[in-house]
Write a structure and sequence with these properties.
single chain, Rossmann fold, binds 4'-phosphopantetheine
């Protein structure tokens, strides 16, 4: 069984992430979306919220599972018997850091491959941070994130002033 993992912070998930997850689900028997539990990073959504949002938005994809992890991605991959790491590449600017991570992960476990997928052009400028920034400043983020995330971001930024 070919199992791939899509790792990320997903704080929050964007339509760019969802596009990669849906396309990856057609290429593998199972895709595990792995949400990074990162205590040192100031996340806007809790790990439980990020997992829940992903579960709600991937419910139609039968071979997609949502999980969370902390520590090394490679250790999570081994635990899940997964062979492939899926990463979305938006632009050349993503490449250097992604290559570093891919090579480090390969050094840690030679049996695990990283596969890069090109983000759909309509989402190529998207990132969770830029979406949060625009929402915080009152800009329109419609169509860039799932509707429930859009509502939640608007609500949180309004309450926060
Ligand atoms: O969405 P992000 O924040 O760009 O995702 C980064 C992620 C989660 C893929 C990366 O930080 C990661 O794999 N972290 C786990 C710790 C780890 O394995 N580090 C060594 C990788 S070289």
């Amino acid at each position: 069984m070919r199992i791939a993992v899509c790792p990320g912070s997903f704080d929050p998930v964007t339509n760019g992430h969802l596009d990669i997850i849906a396309r990856a689900s057609k290429m593998f028997d199972k895709v595990i979306v792995a949400v990074l539990h990162n205590s040192s990073k100031n996340s806007m959504f809790t790990i439980e919220e990020r997992v829940e949002i992903l579960k709600n938005n991937c419910a139609d994809l039968e071979n997609v599972e949502i999980d969370s992890f902390s520590g090394l991605l490679i250790d999570f991959m081994e635990l899940k018997n997964a062979q492939v790491i899926i990463k979305g590449l938006r632009a050349v600017s993503d490449f250097e850091y992604e290559m570093q991570m891919a090579l480090m992960n390969r050094k840690l476990n030679q049996n695990i491959e990283t596969v890069f997928m090109m983000t759909s052009s309509k989402y190529s400028y998207l990132s969770s941070s830029i979406v949060k920034e625009v929402a915080r400043l009152g800009g329109c983020i419609h169509g860039l994130v799932p509707d429930s995330v859009e509502e939640e971001l608007i609500k949180r930024f309004n309450i926060g002033g």
